[in-house]
Design goal:
The complex is a heterodimer of chains A (114) and B (183). Chain A is mainly alpha-helical. Chain A has one domain. In chain A, 62% of the residues lie in helices and 0% in strands. In chain A, helix 1 runs antiparallel to helix 2. The longest helix of chain A has 25 residues. Chain A starts with 18 loop residues before the first helix and ends with a helix. With 183 residues, chain B is an all-alpha fold. The chains are: A mainly alpha (114), B mainly alpha (183). At the A-B interface, helix 1, helix 2 and helix 3 of A face helix 2, helix 4, helix 5 and helix 6 of B.
């Protein structure tokens, strides 16, 4: 993905640069997709994240790995965008699309189709 | 009284579902309502002190929502889920102490594990990530969230999605607990 760093203050009235906010939003979308991907990979037997707490089973590995992806994405994006003005439209659309895809991949009826 | 009214795992289940899950629903809804109700339309004259105060309340509310939701998710995954999925010893006839096996033992309740619990295992983690992003933005940007239409709309959208996911998971959890409670 290219960095959408076009200056756009037309819809902004006041306040600091929006980069840190958009980094948090997009990282949450990436985290949501990571949850969905770890689930679908396990369901299709392509990759099972190791269980980190045996009594809870595989869900402990899937969710912890996804949370790690989320936090790493957040740190990386924050370091790139904090203090900068970022064009928000594409980031908003990408975030919502990633969240929708992540939730969809967690939907059991989908697994039966694969 | 020499008998316990509730078992330890029943208390943890209530803490997970009613206290933390319910708390997350309440705080997420309150945060979403506040974000919309306290918005400052572009060009509108507003008392800066009042807006700052409202933004501080909103930040506190979103942080509370994220913290309560994470606690619900972690308690659910690491405290309530293990006894739910515990396998019964060979030859066990009464499965009431083993909710997962009890649900899977009947075609009429199988979906409560294969659909409902599978969703509950993962989707709340997504909700917690979204709520955390909004809490971070509300805490860092304060009144800018109430004044900046784009930031506000995105924060409201993510709070709304998070609320919907938590509400769905809570409903499915209620169904599961009605049929196969952790007692």
């Amino acid at each position: 993905m290219t960095t959408p760093a076009v200056e756009d203050r037309s819809a902004r009235t006041v306040g600091p640069a929006n980069g840190a906010a958009l980094a948090a939003f997009l990282a949450a979308g990436i985290g949501a997709l990571a949850v969905g991907l770890f689930v679908i990979l396990a369901e299709t037997d392509l990759f099972s994240a190791p269980s980190l707490y045996a009594p809870a089973g595989g869900v402990s590995g899937r969710t912890t790995f996804a949370a790690a992806v989320w936090l790493i994405a957040w740190v990386v994006l924050h370091r790139r965008w904090a203090g900068r003005e970022v064009e928000p439209r594409r980031v908003h659309v990408a975030t919502l699309a990633l969240v929708a895809l992540g939730v969809l991949l967690c939907f059991p009826p989908l697994w039966a189709l694969l | 009284m020499d008998t316990l009214l509730f078992s330890e795992r029943s208390i943890w289940t209530m803490l997970h579902g009613i206290v933390l899950g319910g708390g997350a629903l309440v705080t997420l809804f309150a945060a979403l309502f506040s974000l919309v109700a306290m918005r400052v339309p572009a060009g509108a004259a507003a008392d800066a002190g009042a807006v700052d105060r409202q933004a501080r309340y909103l930040a506190g509310l979103t942080v509370a929502a994220a913290v309560v939701l994470w606690l619900a998710v972690i308690v659910g995954t690491y405290v309530s889920f293990p006894p739910y999925r515990a396998a019964p010893p060979e030859g066990t006839a009464d499965l009431s102490a083993y909710p997962r096996s009890l649900l899977l033992s009947s075609p009429g309740t199988e979906w409560l594990h294969g659909f409902a619990m599978e969703i509950k295992e993962h989707v709340p983690w997504i909700a917690a990530m979204l709520a955390t992003a909004v809490a971070f933005v509300a805490a860092r940007y304060r009144s800018a969230v109430l004044r900046d239409a784009r930031l506000r709309r995105m924060a409201a959208a993510l709070l709304g999605v998070s609320l919907a996911l938590v509400a769905g998971a809570a409903l499915l959890g209620t169904f599961i607990n009605k049929v196969a409670p952790l007692e």
